[in-house]
Amino acid sequence: MGRDTIADIITSIRNADMDRKVTVRIASTNITENIVKILLREGFIENVRKHQESNKYFLVGVLPGMKEQKWIHEGLITESLPNGKNPT
């Protein structure tokens, strides 16, 4: 069975938001780069750069300000549910 790349990215952003982190690190592949571009365009990530550590590439995304993070966290939950309802 394959990995759920979109869920992995959303979970990484949600976890970083819950821990009040400023950045989130995501493994870089062609698919993750395209997904992150969409998240950047939609405002879920403010800025992104590619980072290399020991032959492995990562995307480092900067999350929006703390005031907006709660909204983004709730938006990601809503968008990730099949029925579109917020669980809270």
Strand-helix topology:
Blueprint: H1 5-18, E1 23-27, H2 30-42, E2 47-53, E3 56-62, H3 66-80
Antiparallel strand pairs: 1-3, 2-3
List the keywords.
single chain, alpha+beta, 3 helices
Numbering strands along the chain, what is their spatial order in the largest sheet?
1-3-2
Structural class by sheet pairing and helices: alpha+beta
Tally the helices: what do you get? 3
Query: Could you state the oligomeric state of the chains shown?
Result: single chain
Average pLDDT number: 77
Largest sheet properties = 3 strands, antiparallel
Share of helix, binned? 40-55%
H/E series, N to C? HEHEEH
Shape: globular
Q: How many individual β-strands?
A: 3
- In whole angstroms, how far apart are the ends? 31 Å
Give the radius of gyration: 13 Å
Question: How would you characterize the overall build of this protein?
Answer:
With 88 residues, the chain is an alpha+beta fold. It contains three helices and three strands. It has helices at 5-18, 30-42, 66-80, and strands spanning 23-27, 47-53, 56-62. The protein has a three-stranded antiparallel sheet. Helix 1 packs antiparallel against helix 3 (66-80). It starts with a helix and ends in an 8-residue tail after the last helix.
